[in-house]
Design goal:
Elements: H1 14-27, H2 35-41, H3 46-53, H4 56-62, H5 78-92, H6 99-106, H7 113-117, H8 120-126, H9 140-154, H10 172-179, H11 182-195, H12 209-225, H13 233-242, E1 262-266, E2 281-285, H14 286-295
Antiparallel strand pairs: 1-2
Helix pairs in contact: 3-4, 9-13, 10-11, 11-13
Amino acid sequence: MNKFLIDRLPDHQEETLLSEIRRVADLIDSEFITISEFDQHARISASGLGQRFGSWSKALQKAGLSHRFCRPTKYFSDEELIEKLQQIATQTCKPYVTKTEFSEHTGIDTTSFLRRFGSWRAALEKAGLQQTPGGKRYTYEECMENLLKVWTHLGRPPEYLEMKALPSTVGPKAYITRWKSWNKALHAFVDKVNSDEPDDPLVSESVKPDTIQAISQKTKSRNSDVDKREIKLGLRYRVLKRDNFKCVLCGRSPAMTPGLELHVDHIRPFSKGGKTVEENLRSTCFACNIGKGASI
């Protein structure tokens, strides 16, 4: 008779997680354990374990099961490997697949891909996929926008490993390359938000004339922003945080509703004289924003 098990773990201590990995491993008859097979039986997802231990392979290694991680590519034809690449891209909702993603989802070693296809790039081309963005140099604005998106999704500052998963489209290494540490990257984001702060410092009589002129120019720039449709990143963040990273109309949040995206839009439409100021902005999901537009 099968033992009765509640569908959640009693806690997330390391030994509890490792025991769960070993329990599921005993249920899987095949020599190698893939993410899809594990998720069918486990009370915690393989991706969650990957975040906890650094990767799915490291989780298996910690549980003493590293020998069940990868099978050689000799067991598969070229066509089967290409099909698996396409399947993983569909599962992860990304136009590319990294070597790590391929191994962790399929349990197949990628070391012989060079002999099979010439390169990982060539394998992706055969599968009709884009190249991995590992070598891409992201701009400052792309990094900041991506961090805002993930911060909004979680409703809090993201952890380093969380930048490897959707909705993030810029990996954590890009932030380390630019800012040298994850902590410095987060501080850079805060500095960016504060740089868009509308409140100007008080100007005392002791301030030099050239400084007063600079502050005056900055004030003029900010005043002109209220007459622009574009909402700066810092202002968007303040509105999202004020609204607790939830849609003010339906109350849903990205943290609780998978696939939900929040936008910051004008309460009084910009086209009808609405200003781009915090008091005239609110956080809404796509569905509510469309509904609002249809009613105007």
